[in-house]
Every structure is written in structure tokens, then in C-alpha cells.
Amino acid sequence: MPNAQAGDLALLYGPDGKRFLIRLQPGEVLHTHRGMIPHDALIGTPLGRTVYTHLDMPFLALEPSLHDLLLKLRRASQIMYPKDIGYVLLKLNISSGKRVIEAGSGSGAMTIALANAIRPHGCVVSYEVRPDMLSLARKNVDSLGLLPYVDFKLRDIAAGFDETDVDACFLDLREPWEYLEQVRQAVKPGGFFGALVPTANQVIDTLTGLQRLGFGAIEVEELLLRPYKPVPGRLRPVDRIVAHTGYLIFARTPTLGEATLPAEGAPLANAVTIPDEPLQPESESDPPGT
Amino acid sequence: MPNAQAGDLALLYGPDGKRFLIRLQPGEVLHTHRGMIPHDALIGTPLGRTVYTHLDMPFLALEPSLHDLLLKLRRASQIMYPKDIGYVLLKLNISSGKRVIEAGSGSGAMTIALANAIRPHGCVVSYEVRPDMLSLARKNVDSLGLLPYVDFKLRDIAAGFDETDVDACFLDLREPWEYLEQVRQAVKPGGFFGALVPTANQVIDTLTGLQRLGFGAIEVEELLLRPYKPVPGRLRPVDRIVAHTGYLIFARTPTLGEATLPAEGAPLANAVTIPDEPLQPESESDPPGT
Amino acid sequence: MPNAQAGDLALLYGPDGKRFLIRLQPGEVLHTHRGMIPHDALIGTPLGRTVYTHLDMPFLALEPSLHDLLLKLRRASQIMYPKDIGYVLLKLNISSGKRVIEAGSGSGAMTIALANAIRPHGCVVSYEVRPDMLSLARKNVDSLGLLPYVDFKLRDIAAGFDETDVDACFLDLREPWEYLEQVRQAVKPGGFFGALVPTANQVIDTLTGLQRLGFGAIEVEELLLRPYKPVPGRLRPVDRIVAHTGYLIFARTPTLGEATLPAEGAPLANAVTIPDEPLQPESESDPPGT
Amino acid sequence: MPNAQAGDLALLYGPDGKRFLIRLQPGEVLHTHRGMIPHDALIGTPLGRTVYTHLDMPFLALEPSLHDLLLKLRRASQIMYPKDIGYVLLKLNISSGKRVIEAGSGSGAMTIALANAIRPHGCVVSYEVRPDMLSLARKNVDSLGLLPYVDFKLRDIAAGFDETDVDACFLDLREPWEYLEQVRQAVKPGGFFGALVPTANQVIDTLTGLQRLGFGAIEVEELLLRPYKPVPGRLRPVDRIVAHTGYLIFARTPTLGEATLPAEGAPLANAVTIPDEPLQPESESDPPGT
Asked: How would CATH label the architecture of B9-64?
């Protein structure tokens, strides 16, 4: 475990679960509700320590996870939640080496997750039409050292993307159905498309657009995260939760060849059959549903 | 888009949403419920095509995503679901270059996701006590070309892990509370711990163990995935869903220094405060709760 | 506890949780998967007994609850689920003495619940356009002895309801927005309106209609029922559940006086404020929100 | 529609969805955030009117539903939520004429719902050990005119219930498993038992007690209520919801005869089979499972 240095990020986790994210700077002091901790008490020692405030209250000094960082992002808009981000990364097949485009950049939460996932050999191109948002997203991405993996473009994607044959595209904007033709031109045939929208009306409009343009394997899903109070003698869900972040829409871009497949039935078949039968990756034929 | 070759995996997506995963082999034929497709119709052409069965039914021939592959794994046990896997990867801070241990290997679903995420510079060590399971997991990992990133060990982890100072540890076994001391010795101070268990009783026992051994930042969460029928004129959730896969437990391993923090309040504070206030990564002080 | 008599309904609950609903008839025999039980073993003795099949397997012989009966109804259409029915009864303020109309009758599940709740002094008028459905609903209502409380009408409600000044109206049909003017004329000013629809599109159309006609206090809600395996040593949710029955829509019919209130904000304010502050029924002023 | 009179309850529903519950009194004035409304503007006219504040803001003056009243109860403890209450009434087979006991009285929310449901011919006996709570519950029940149907008893139920052969018993207290023998003696054989507890630990202990004492048809369930913003152009779930009120436990009291049935499988079989097949109340044999 290397020693923490000036400029590193550290997560201070208090006795009541409150979390403070700081960037270590010599001479600075963290003021918490339970007392002060000088940054110099952390610089030069490894993270993974218990430190004490001047009131002798213990805090865990930890390396922040990507999850911690996403939740603490400086934001000017609603950011995507980690529960959705982790799932989108899997559904869009994001991994080291992939070329991905997104719009808009927003506060950069998805940008950061994408950049972190395509490292060290892929790239992310992030389009944003608002200069202030792009500036914030760039700053957030830079603060985590991920700027080498991201190309920001201040641009209305109505004019199209510069890239072609990319692996995947994710849209987090108000009217994704307006840009599906642009997506089709930028993503390779059969590539991955995803979008997040908050309302059922937007889902309906996006589905209509996806079907019209011949996207395949269309899916709509929602993820609910339910935290529990981690008390062994009184285990129970927390009283109140975030009950809605958005609807996730996934599809494969139109393939070479003229045919379009109907979307209906796909997720249903999927949902019904997955857990019932052992499936085999090498098998010749693998019908999942009845 | 390169041409598909013998040995490549391809996902055939039928007109009613049925999915077939095949490994391309010259001379082989895929028999679907809508007719036959010879593998040779795919070999030598790029994926992302529409192909037709001998009954003239269209199928999308697609590159499978990691998500598709996980759902189609040859399995001898309940596998982890992608919804949980994507979230665990974020919570355990898994990314390129990390050193991770897991037990047990099971059918290898989590192993595959971990290996894919730490590429190309990290490593996964996967412990399994049953030879048949280890053999299946290894085969599944190998079939996706990820074996170079995984070290399988046929071992009861009651005897401890060989590794020390690893970044993270994930346990998917019946009694995780029996192995927390072993986890503490293998993971670096303040490192990431995760577990998945199906019953509330197991959650209670694991929480008790985590508190006793001084783990910090303890959280219990559950993810529910709700698919919708993607029909624009009749948008609605599907009738029946998988309503329970397991409870997710997260914690940070004990830190250097004697103090232990109470777990209660942590997730609650977290849940209450995230969306209410703009948070800033570089800020000196960042109290998330009220 | 009176003795069971010929013609009574009895619920037989098997050792594995299977349930059989029978109407006691002298000389008849119930054939279960665990053996036979002659009805005469039940007739003339009180329910609340354990009886044995000819294979010596124990069954509980129980008085069926309304909940049991609703789930066992002979049906020709999707019936409403008890979870929704119980909530609708409260929201529509149904109790002894109320006058209620519904359309359509369907298989009579909601009719039965309404009739049971308005007993002994109220009445239910149930409209249905299909003769076969009305016949089935009437038969189901009659089988539970509730026919004295229900007036069935074979009628398209496009022509309006016969009744005026009723307390509440519930619509369980495909296009509730087509009949809101008819509802307004039948229900007393400020009375209770409810509807159940399966798709988001129908919710949108119904909301549009409700706003246009000046309905107030509009709410849309969904109830999810999550059963657990009742095993004390392995408590956990069941794997698969019914995840969607329908969206519930509630409103108050237009009041005397011209003004219409905007719907937005109502349920939100409600959701936010209910549990946070003690509220008082007799208080002069009771602002629930912030 | 009769005219509202002094002493009646009225619900004032504001233009932004805020709700005020008042008891009409000559000369009194309701002060809202949007202006004042004199009670005399309502007394002597029917409810179901739009009234205006002195600032000319419209309010709906409505008859409150039982649902409205339950949410506005003067409370000294967490009350049961209407979503749970409506379901419990169905599961415990509560209707006009039934004899029901409950403990404790709490703030009287469940007492009110029970009393309203057994009217005009049944009775509720409500046990409470704390004089202040009993006093509040009685006051709340009285304020809705339901006192004739409720018999309050200031008593620790460890000493047993006075009643025997009642139809149903509901426990809303910390340790329901301590009183199951008392329940068995008070409720008729095969009668209805229900309980609400907030933690998984309490569920486990209650299940253990129910099995030991031979209760049958044991079920554990949870109800989640998800409100939507009722805006037709932007339909979406509200951001934050009450995610946990409690676990509901249901069982039938021990029957005459010695045998006890295993609980496992019951709810599962139930959950799996209900919607798949048409069921018939008069049928001789009705196996719901596979």
C-alpha cells in the first residue's frame, strides 16, 4: 500500500456514516461535524487507516471507490446513479479497448464510468451542447485522471457524430428519438445502443423511433435499489428510498440486410427462461424460451 | 468490422426474441424453431447482419455482449445475475489493473466479469472447493478467452488465502461469516469486501461477523430489475419477474489503528442525502447527511 | 363454531400448501394429489378441523376467507388481485351503506368485494356489455350469497348510467377516458372515482381526460406484493412474483363551482409529508407538505 | 347530498395538492398557505364544492375518505399505512358482523379500519397496555363516530384475552411470538391471525413460534406502494417513496385435531399458480400448483 500524497483523493468515513471526500493538500484542514483533521495527518502515510479528530472521534481514511466518487461529483444536473451505470456498462458491452460515444456529457458521471471501463486502450467521445456543462464534465473527468481517455466535443448532435463504426452509443438527453438516425450512422451494424429517460412518455417515443429505424433486440428495464439498515439485531429495509431514477432502454443498431425484427416478446422470453434451464455457451442451439 | 471466423461466438436473435448463442464451426448447422442456419452463412462475413433460415425467417447475427454471455453460461449452480454483477464491480472498485480474489468460483459468472474488468493489467484469483465446479468455471472462463487473467485454486478457504494486500475480495458461498478473518488477512487495510447471500438469516450472521472483526462502512442492499414489454402502444411492466436473487453486503476491511466504527446510519445517511445537494469531489469538507 | 352443512364452502389446505376449494355435497369425494377426502367427513362437524385423506395425509379444513375466494373465482378474464382490491375499497371510501357503481362486471371479483363491503345496507350496480361475462359474474356473486346486494345491468355505459348521486364509481375496462362524462353525471359532486388499467398509455389518456373534465385530487399508484418463503431458518423473498397487475387511478369527481385544480404536486406532497409529522384530525389547519 | 353541519369533518384540498382536515365549527377560520376560509362558508351547504380563500385561491371542499382520515390521525406512534390495512382486512376476512380482537391499540388506525369494516353488527376488542396510547386511540375512534363498535381494554395481553371463539386477531406489537398461545385460546379453531413487524428478525421469531404452536397456512408478505406524478405529458414514478412499513404475517390458528402442516411451499405454490389457470369455486377439486 503506497503512501498517500498531496493531490490524492481520500474518503473520510465518520462514526455515524457521514462521508467526506477530500483532495489532500499540505496545510489544509478538514472540518467535520465531529472535529478537525489536518490533511498532513494523512499525507505520507498509507490510506486504510483510522485517524482521529481533535475531539478524538475516529474516522476511517479510505481510498474512494469509483462508486464513492460518482456519488460525490460536483454536479449541475441530475447525475446517473451507480446502480444504473454498472448495469449499462454490462449491457453495452463496455470493456477495455472499446470505442464509445455519449451525449450529453452532463456532469460527467457516465463519462467517468465509461472512461474507467475502456482503459487503457479504448476511447470515449462525449458530446455536449452546453458550454458550462461540458466544462464541468471535463473538470470532473480530469479530477480523476481520466482525461486522456475522453474526447469532449461542444456540439449539437443533430448535426451528427464525427465518428463511425463505434462499438456503442449512450444517450442521456431529453429527446433521444430525435437522434436515432445519427446513432445509426455512427455505430457499427449490430452495435450497442442505450438511453436513460425519466418519463413513460419518453420511453414510448423512443420505442417508436427505434422500431421505425429498424433497431433490434429492443429492451426497456428499470432498476430499483433497496438499502437495508445494516443492524444485525434489527435487519430491515430503510424507510425511504430513491424510487425512480429513469427507464433504461437498450437496442442493437440496425444490421446489414433489410429485415427488421419485431421487438415484442424479446424481453419477456428472456425474463421467463433465463433461470429455469442450464444454458451452454458452446452449444449449437440454445432456445431460451417457450 | 472484421469478418467472423471459425471459433468466434455469435448471438442469433430470432423474430420473436429467442436467442441462440453459437460458436462458429465450418459445416455445422443451427437448428432453430424457425428453421436452419448453416454456420458457413456467418463465417467470413462481419457480424451485425440479418441472415435467413431455410424457411426464410430473419435472424439478427450479432456479437454477443458480456451480458448475453453471462446469461447463457453453462451452469451447475445458480449464477449471479448481471444486475448484481454490474453493481458489485462498481462498489468493489474493480477496474483495469486491480488484484481481486473470489470464493467460490461457482459456474464462473462472477469470475468472467471480474477478469473482463481488470484486463489487461490486473489479475483474479478464484478459490473453489469442489473440483467439478472449478472445472466448469475454468472451462467457461476459457471459452471467452479470459483464462490468462484468472488463477484458479482448488482449496477450502478456511485454510486462508495465499495472497495478501489484494484490492478486493468477493464471497459467493453459504457462510461468508466463517471466513472474514481470512478476508482480513488477504485484503489490504481499508480494501473492498463484498458478498451475496440469499436469506435474511445469512445477512444477519454476516453483519454480526463484520462488526465483530471491525469491518467498516458496512452496507446491505438489494437490486430489483423490472423489465417492460417494449411495445410503444402498450407500454407496461412484464407480468412476472425474478423478484429475488440475493442480498448484497459490502464493507471495507479493517483499517490500521484500533478503532471500529458503528455501521448503523451509514447507508441511511447515504440514501437520504445523495440527491438533495450538489456534492464536490475536490471540496475540503463534504458532509452528505443531515 | 356452527357445524358445516351441505352447500357450505370449505377450503382444504394440504401438507404442501396446495389449496382446494369445495362446496360440500353429501356423497361427493374430493380427490387430491395426496389422497381422497369424502365430503361427508366434513358435513355435520365444525370447520377448523384437521382431516385425513385415505392415504392418511393431513389437510386443514378451513372456512375460506374472502381473499381465498377471490383467488379461486371461476374466471373468464383477468380478475383484479386482492392486493389492489383491498386498497381500492379504502381509497373509494367503501363501507356499509354506500351506493356504488362499477363497469365492467368482468368475472365479478370486484363486484364481490364491493358487495361484501357495503353490506348490509348499501348497494352495488354492476354494468357489463358482454352477456357471457355478466352471466359469469352473476353466478360468482350468487355462489357467495351476495346477489341481494348487487344489481347487474347488461348495458354499454356509453349510454350513461341510470343512477345519480352515487357515492363512488370504479371502472375496470379498456378505455376509461371514454366514459368520464358519464361518471360525472352518475356520481355525486366530490365523490370517489377509481380505475385500473394495465398500460402506461392508458394512464396517460385517462389523466388527460380527468383533467379536461375537471376531476380533482388525481392520483396514480401501483401496488407490488412481495411474498416470502415462511421458513424461519431461511427467510427470503420468493424467487418469482407477479410484478404487474395494473396502475390504479383515483380522483374526486368535479365539484359544484367552476374551478378546477391542477393535479400535479398532489401525490408528491402526500408521499413526502405523511410520515414526517404527527397529524391531527380535529385540528383547524393541517398543512401536510413543505 | 346533505348539507354539511357543525361537527362534520371536511377535507380541504388546495390548488397544489395540500390537504387540510377540519372539523366544522361556527365562527372558526381555516388558515392555509393560500389564504383563509371561514368554516361558515362550508356549514349549511353540501360538501363537494369549490370554495375560495380570501386571496381568491380555489380549494375543493370534500367529504374525507377513510383513507384520508387514517393518514391524518393524531398519532403518538407509527400508524399502520392504508396499503397494509386494506390488505389485512381482506386476508383476515373482516366484514360486517365479525368479532375481532387486536393488540395494541396504538394510535387507533387499525382499530378504526376494523370498526368501520365490521359495522353495523360486529365488534372489535382492542387491548393496549399504555394508558396514554389507549386514551389517544379511543379519542381517534370516537372522533369518527366508531366508538359504539369498539371495546377498549387497558391490559397486558400476557394475561390472556377475555374473549374466546373470535373470528380473527391482529397483533401490532414488538414481540408477537410471546402471545401466540393467548391468541390460540381466544380465536376459534382455524380462525384468522395477522401481525405486522418491521424487522426480519421479528419475522423469524414469529415464524418459529407459529410453527411450534401448530398454526397453519403461514404466509409472510410485503406490500410496496409506488405513487406516480399524475401529469399526462410526463408520467413517471415519484422520486422518493416510503420503501418499508413492515412485514405482514398471516396464519390460521391451530385446528381441532393434532396434526400440524409444514408452512414451506404454501406461499410459493400460491404465488406460482394463481394467475396461470382459471379456478372454480364450486369445483370438487382445485389443485393450484404444479
From this structure: Roll (3.10)
